[in-house]
Amino acid sequence: MSAVREDFREILRLVRPGSRVLDVGCEDGGLLELLTREKQVDGQGLEISPQGVAACLAKGLAVVQGDGDRDLDHFPTRSFDYAILSKTLQQMREPKHVLNELLRIADQAIVSVPNFGHWRMRVSLMTRGRMPETRALPDPWWSTPNIHLCTLRDFTDLCRDLDLRIDACAALTSGKPARGINPEKALENWRSESALFLLSRRAEARPEATPTDLFGEVAVPKAEAPAKARARRKARA
After folding, report:
1. Nearest CA to 171 among 162, 180, 163?
2. Average pLDDT over residues 142-151
């Protein structure tokens, strides 16, 4: 697992074993391959580049060539448990429509975005007066595929506008372990290089039948101390 991308590690923790997964913009199928091997998911990829499709097929993965901006509309409603969009939303022409579609075709969406409000971005703009280039956004402005950059505050505002619920969120910073955060806090808008969100429709119940922690793993209740348990039984008697 040492060579696995940090966002892939967190997605692996979020996804339930045996679930149906759609990876939008799956590139060479690295995440799908990991989820299939480690969580035995029923996975499918959607990838726009012929090279990416060929790489997925060479790994034995189910993939179709298509554009996330247009082709999500063709997927049946609630045909997946999770729809994943990893570091791709900012490259979409219509991110609002894409988010809506992800949560039409799946019970939950896992979305990661770079944070343009990170302190390095702000300092770079203030001191250099140029579009920043950082570890999360390494391309110069004239060759970047990103067309809709946002801050954590922008993204949480969009979720609120779409009536989406943030079930979990983790900050991702290069070279550091992911950490669970409340993305509504102003400080996180400064210090989170990028963030990964688990989203669902606010009016719908979570699909899990068992209690889970921040990253979807089963929450095991802590054992009660023996003395406290005896006192509670005596009071009940």
Report:
1. 180
2. 72
